Amino acid sequence: MPGLVVCARCGKHFVGTSALGNRYRYRYYTCFSRQRYGTKYCAAERLPAEELDAAVLDALLHTYERTDLFDKAVASARCRARSERASWSHLPSAND
């Protein structure tokens, strides 16, 4: 997931980080600016990695369940290709 999430405050990407508690290691996604320069530069909160990973996975699964999206994308690409070919038909060919 690192690099896919963009900070709303500063526009940098989130990176994977972790923190060690008393008993466990906690994984987070942290804004690059906050991680590198501190909260004075970017005060965006750290995002719990497990929750974000689960949310992204759920969104991907929901998207892939919608097969109509692929059909629409293919139809749109074919339409654009036909339009481009039609616009090229008035150009002289290389053999002319």
Structure explained in plain terms:
The protein has 96 residues and is of the alpha+beta class. It has a 3-stranded antiparallel β-sheet. Helices cover 47% and strands 17% of the residues. A hairpin with a 4-residue loop joins strand 1 and strand 2 (25-31). The longest helix is centred in the C-terminal third of the chain and has 22 residues, at 67-88. The protein has one domain. The N and C termini lie far apart (53 Å). It is built from 3 helices and 3 strands; from the N terminus they run ββαβαα. The protein is elongated, with a radius of gyration of 23 Å.
- The percentage helix is 40-55%
Q: Give the percentage of residues in beta strands.
A: 15-25%
Low-confidence stretches: none
Helices and strands, in order, run as EEHEHH
Label the structural class. alpha+beta
Cα gyration radius (Å): 23 Å
Q: Which sequence of strands runs across the widest sheet?
A: 1-2-3
Largest sheet: 3 strands, antiparallel
Question: How many H/I helices?
Answer: 3
What is the distance, rounded to the nearest whole angstrom, between the alpha carbons of the first and last residues? 53 Å
Mean pLDDT: 87
Shape: elongated
Number of strands: 3
The structural domain count equals 1
